[in-house]
Design a protein that fits this description.
alpha/beta; binds arginine; three-stranded mixed β-sheet; L-arginine/glycine Amidinotransferase, Chain A
């Protein structure tokens, strides 16, 4: 006779099957990386930055994606735009449609048109944003739905603009902790397949109302600790199986392994001086 107790135990502990799907990314080499202005609490102009180290760390990330079989395009870095390495902020691309970024701070505003031009030059249909938004820094696709951050950078008016443009549901989430000023520093999309949605997030980075929205939508979510979040561990990149995570996000690494992901620590400590990690350097192109 089958021992039902044992059977249910096996089911409960077996990790969900994880599947990698091929990705197409856009990245920007940090050839001009430095911290020459301060627009988030991580940035300190008086601290020295090591550009060679930034490039080396970025190259490890780039090579990691290539090793996993993903396609990575590169945009030319522009002198005088030290944050251009944070390609995730450059646009939002879904169904081959490019919704341009419109940056909040003047220091980064020239980046919007440069990214938009790259997409236009490569045959994409682009839509110039009327409203302030910082691309995938604040706009993340989970299943068929966009989660869209606001509070520090992206204007909620852009959430409506995005919904009108794409015909997709856009869920507004309010960020409340200045250290986690972009949605991709507070929440990470681990599985974006419709019907298999899985996210990790740090609840305290969100307003109580937004915490309630997240809890209702993602009862299964991985809860990231304060230490994970402070290491910018949630600025992770997942292809559905492999996940790049900041080495210092110890609890998150363990939680992801337990959920069946292959965790690949990649150090991005030099880029952290600008307030970014792996995800910030990675813009996903969904054609
Ligand atoms: N220094 C940049 C800024 O404050 C960092 C951007 C990080 N990017 C991101 N996707 N979170 O705008």
């Amino acid at each position: 006779m089958t021992d039902l107790t044992q059977l249910s135990e096996v089911t409960a502990t077996s990790p969900t099957e994880r599947t990698a799907t091929p990705r197409h990314y856009l990245m920007c080499r940090p050839d001009h990386f430095t911290v020459s202005y301060e627009i988030n609490p991580w940035m300190d102009k008086t601290r020295l930055t090591d550009r060679d180290l930034a490039v080396a760390q970025w190259e490890t990330l780039y090579e990691t994606y290539l090793a996993w079989g993903h396609t990575v395009d590169l945009i030319d870095p522009a002198p005088g735009l030290p944050d251009m390495v944070f390609a995730a902020n450059g646009a939002t691309v879904v169904d081959g449609l490019v919704y341009s970024a419109k940056f909040r701070y003047p220091e980064r505003q020239p980046e919007g048109p440069l990214y938009e031009k790259w997409f236009a030059d490569h045959g994409y249909m682009t839509q110039t944003a009327a409203e302030v938004n910082e691309g995938e820094g604040d706009i993340l696709l989970v299943g068929d739905t966009f989660l869209a951050g606001t509070g520090f950078r992206t204007d909620p008016a852009s959430h409506g603009e995005l919904a009108r443009l794409t015909g997709r549901e856009v869920v507004t989430l309010e960020l409340v902790d200045p250290r986690f000023y972009h949605l991709d520093t507070a929440l990470s999309v681990l599985d974006s397949r419709p019907g298999h949605e899985l996210v990790a997030y740090h609840p305290q980075a969100f307003s109580p109302a937004s915490q309630a929205v997240l809890a209702e939508r993602y009862p299964d979510a991985v809860m990231a600790t304060e230490a994970d979040a402070v290491a910018l561990g949630l600025n992770a990149v997942s292809d559905g199986l492999h996940v790049v995570v900041a080495p210092a996000a110890v609890d998150l690494k363990a939680a992801l392994t337990e959920r069946g992901f292959e965790v690949h620590p990649v150090a991005t400590t030099e880029l952290l001086k600008g307030g970014g990690g792996a995800k910030c350097c990675t813009l996903e192109i969904r054609s």
